[in-house]
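Narrative summary of target 7.
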Amino acid sequence: MHRIAVPLLAGVALMIAIPILLAWSGSRRRLRVPAQGGVHVLRMPRGHWAIMATIAFLPFGALSTLAFLADWAPGTESGRWILGGLTAFLALTGGGALLLLELRGALRLDAAGIEQVGPVGSRHLPWVEVSKVTFNPTGNWFYLSAAGRRPTYFVEGLDGIATFAEVALLHLPPAVLAACPDAAEALREVAEIQEPSLRA
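Modeled conformation, tokenized:
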């Protein structure tokens, strides 16, 4: 019983700490980031994806631990390796992908377009290929659409969200901004804002 109680209590303590850690990470967000060599690098505040990796790892890690520590009935011992191994794999895969985002995830903006750097690769979206810009007022995030491409998202919590708005207004095709007046107005508001949140 003691072997099972300890990891469970540790998991509960971490789950209580996670909202506090996320609030701490979000409080470090900068609205604007300077250009380096003509490139603005936007990313979630340091620590954000590491915290999310912990959230992804905890439930599967706890199940895996319980599977390996539990006393299995005679004849069912193979369940220890099947359940424990599967949940350990899920814990490492989910948590690992998010840790890779912590290490390398970014949105790189320059005069030519946007490079979205993910856990294991990257993709480039030229400004001239953007066909639509959308603002979600509920979640306070933008996404850019282009034919044959996945949308590129810019969430409120990014370091440099105001920088994104400024650069987007400068480089998005005028016809796209004219066709998306609500999003264009939201971009102008974010570009001018000084408060730590997009909207009250």
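Strands lie at 40-42, 106-109, 113-117, 122-126, 132-136, 141-145, 152-154.
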